[in-house]
Amino acid sequence: MDHAADAHRTDLMTITRHVLNEQTKHPESRGDFTILLSHIVLGCKFVCSAVNKAGLAKLIGLAGETNVQGEEQKKLDVLSNEVFINALVSSGRTCILVSEEDEEATFVEPSKRGKYCVVFDPLDGSSNIDCGVSIGTIFGIYLIKDGDEPKLEDVLQPGKNMLAAGYCMYGSSCTFVLSTGGGVNGFTLDPSLGEFILTHPDIKIPKKGKIYSVNEGNAKNWDGPTAKYVEKCKFPTDGSASKSLRYIGSMVADVHRTLLYGGVFLYPADKKSPNGKLRVLYEVFPMSFLMEQAGGQAFTGKQRALDLVPEKIHDRSPIFLGSYDDVEEIKALYAAEEQK
């Protein structure tokens, strides 16, 4: 990428322009989806600004409450959650919101109701705020099934029914990665313009990667196939080079690296967390959606991740996602285990 030339480009593809271009491909579109996305983007800009000055604004530290997952809530978590709830409700295009921070789903009042359900984790990896590690927002969008009154079942759909998914990463730069079902595009916030500019068009994950990403501290509790796969990454028996281990502990950052460089990100089930640790609706589904759209795969240890049907809004699942060939290897190990 020629950054010097980019600095002088005058024909910028902003995220708004990109989404409007996509909209023209659907003549029946009324622009509701575009309006909803612009509200999500605004929420991300607000949170990005808050994250950048968190240390100065005394937003770092605990808010004194514990959220539904039993994690102590950071002040920034609470703020981010409020920002997104307000942005999504005020768009007038949503009917049900599911947030990692709220025990119950939020049903939008009838006067502000639309036809979309949004599931989101307002600030993923927030325990990393104090040490400056990248954190982010993850979201997925569903269309409600036909009917007047929105019901919780409208959200408890398999991930393959999602219309769009994405994340915004607040790191050395603010990056917004989005798929509306026709590939994956990455945008970077230009602070001088206050606009997200298309910097990573049509992201494709390499077919095979050289990196594996997992919390090895849980190794003693892993099942056989996970332990075998990680052993194979470190001590390959076919004469190939070992894979490198990279684990940040912030899902958005780990998945972002996996998407760009290839490899595999895994958070398996173990004896301590038999259903895995990551939440299905607003972590596993959006990231799996993006991976598949970029040419990768996502697998739970039993099935394709996007085929899962959640029973409750905060259900958890194991997840293996990344380069197509790498996930294929993991699937083969689980298949072999099944046959024993």
From TrEMBL:
Domain of life, per lineage: Eukaryota
Top-rank EC class of the record's enzyme: hydrolase
Protein name: Fructose-1,6-bisphosphatase, cytosolic
Species in which this protein is naturally found: Erythranthe guttata
UniProt entry tagged with the keyword Cytoplasm: yes
Cofactor(s) annotated in UniProt: Mg(2+)
Location(s), subcellular: Cytoplasm
InterPro entries the UniProt entry points to: FBPase_C_dom, FBPase_class-1, FBPase_N, FBPtase, Fructose_bisphosphatase_AS
NCBIfam families in alphabetical order: PRK09293.1-1 (NF006778), PRK09293.1-3 (NF006779)
Primary subcellular site in the record, as a coarse category: cytoplasm
GO MF annotation terms: fructose 1,6-bisphosphate 1-phosphatase activity; metal ion binding
Catalytic activity: beta-D-fructose 1,6-bisphosphate + H2O = beta-D-fructose 6-phosphate + phosphate
Domain Fructose-1-6-bisphosphatase class I N-terminal: 13-201
GO CC entries: cytoplasm; cytosol
Similarity field: Belongs to the FBPase class 1 family.
Listed CDD domains: FBPase
EC number annotated for this UniProt entry: 3.1.3.11
Key words of the record: Carbohydrate metabolism, Cytoplasm, Hydrolase, Magnesium, Metal-binding
A Gene Ontology BP annotation from the UniProt entry: gluconeogenesis
Domain Fructose-1-6-bisphosphatase class 1 C-terminal: residue ranges: 205-334
